Amino acid sequence: MNKDKVLIIGNKPYKNLSIGKLIDNFQNNVRCNFSIPLPEFNNGAIYDELALCNHQWSNLVQKNLSLDDIIKLYRDAYNVEYMQKYYSLYKKSLKNYKRVWYAKEDTRNFNEGLSNIGCPYKISAIPRTGYTVMLQKILEGKSVFVTNFSIQKEVRFSIYVDKEYSLKEYESEKNKKQGKKESIPTCHDSSTDVKILRWLHDHKIIDASLCFLQDVDDRKYILDPNLEKGVISDYISELVYNFKSELL
């Protein structure tokens, strides 16, 4: 595979499609935050890069906090059972990556890059880690693919974030845009993130086709993007065809 290709793996899980082996077709990948490549997460097995947001880089890597401290710090936001079960394994897994790095948002350079390619949308809040990595890799000249991202405005459930917190965060972002009181503080603007991703995909700057697959248990509908879903590229269509027997 072309070394310039890189797959950015988000933390929104596929539940019906066994997408792990297809993900591993990309030798170069970037995982995000409190994620571990494990069969139960259906997210491939290859360790390449791990990118962390500001607070996770500080608390999980630089300060190397204990499990008890991590639970105290994140118990309102992250699933406690997940932390108890996987934190030790996560810490041990860090040595398996070729690179673990702080995905620092660079709003000025990101917006300048978006403007240079004609994107009508601009970053106005801190982008989530996956989007930060996506924009950074575009600036590096990589051929960017993404998977396990939200491709429409929706409640953002992930493998480790507490579901109740995700619902509150969704409402807070909506309230913030309407000038209403936030139920919890939020520094993100997921709707703009999604608009940027969709525009980049539609204009073939990135390939987000793996986010458009139908998470169903019937092979004939996997490549059937409906409603607001985008066009699946020929490259990903061929990959899905080649791995179809293993997807279900």
> How many domains is the backbone divided into?
1
- Output the helix-strand order: EHEEHHHEHHEHHEH
Q: Assign the structural class, choosing from mainly alpha, mainly beta, alpha/beta, alpha+beta, or little secondary structure.
A: alpha/beta
Radius of gyration: 18 Å
What's the overall geometry?
globular
The biggest beta sheet is recorded as: 6 strands, parallel
Sequence stretches where pLDDT stays below 50 over 5 or more residues: none
CATH architecture: Alpha-Beta Complex
Assembly context of the chains:
single chain
Q: Estimate the strand proportion.
A: 5-15%
The counted number of beta strands is 6
Instruction: Classify the helix fraction into a percent range.
Output: 25-40%
